[in-house]
Amino acid sequence: MLITISPSKGQDFKTPAPITDFSIPERLDESLILNKEARKLDVEDVRELMTVSENIAKLNVDRFESFSTPFTLENAKQALFAFKGDVYTGISAVQFSEDDIIYAQDHLRMLSGLYGALRPLDLIQPYRLEMKTKLANPRGDNLYQFWDDRITQSINKALATQQEKTLINLASNEYFKAIKPKLLEGRLLNINFKEEKDGKARVIAIFAKRARGMMTDFIIRNRIEKSEDIKKFNMAGYQYSDELSDDKQWTFVRPQPEKKS
């Protein structure tokens, strides 16, 4: 069983990771191609391309310029400990045991516009390049065209090593669009999280992101190898809904939290 989640725009490269073990992104050569293209952009180009402020645009121009190999613990950080955002608040990575880390390395992939499919211990350098970015490159006008079926190939390689060849999709639509479901060599299972209020259940983005992280944490800590065992997930009040689920998509529901005054 393999899990996919999205990366995060928020990143922490100041706090040292709790471990020194690391791996190198499998498609770092592809990242170098993209970074070469990104280096052609000036601050105004980045501001318009990413729809960000001038300060953020300048920060990312500097990041593209400083991107360099080889990756080491001095100039990069393990992806699972570098990403900081709503999804990652639900993953207690700093509390993971050695066995947790080993399981995560084999069962978790973080989809990235710059790196493709990252393993938890893959070193990354600071960056911002969302999958939806329309960065012209040698293979097309955007990152979906650049990656084509390469991310799917990486996912299939990982699926081939699993006891149960099921891909548990906990990534956002933006990132999962980089995977070609028809080419997957295994079962695809999408997971939804909904908040229930006045008899209606709906997806609320901020809660769904946090829940994706919590489920990732739940799977890793419990070393789950069979997708059926995911139905036991009950963190933060979520419960599996048989009524709202089918064989391709499972939905977990909870009462919508009250707004804090």
Notes on the structure:
By secondary structure, the chain is α/β, with parallel strands linked by helices. It contains 10 helices and 10 strands. Strands 1, 3, 4, 6, 7, 8, 9 and 10 form an 8-stranded mixed sheet that branches. Helix 2 packs across helix 3. The mean pLDDT is 96.
Task: Chart the SSEs and their pairings.
Blueprint (H helix, E strand, L loop, with lengths): L1 E4 L22 H11 L4 H8 L3 H13 L10 E2 H4 L3 H4 L8 H10 E5 L3 E3 L4 E2 L18 H5 L2 H10 L6 E4 L3 H4 L10 E11 L2 E3 L2 H17 L17 E3 L7 E7 L6
Parallel strand pairs: 1-3, 1-6, 6-7, 7-10
Antiparallel strand pairs: 2-5, 3-4, 7-8, 9-10
Helix pairs in contact: 2-3
How do you describe this structure in short?
The chain is of the alpha/beta class and 261 residues long. It contains 10 helices and 10 strands. A hairpin with a 7-residue loop joins β9 (239-241) and β10 (249-255).
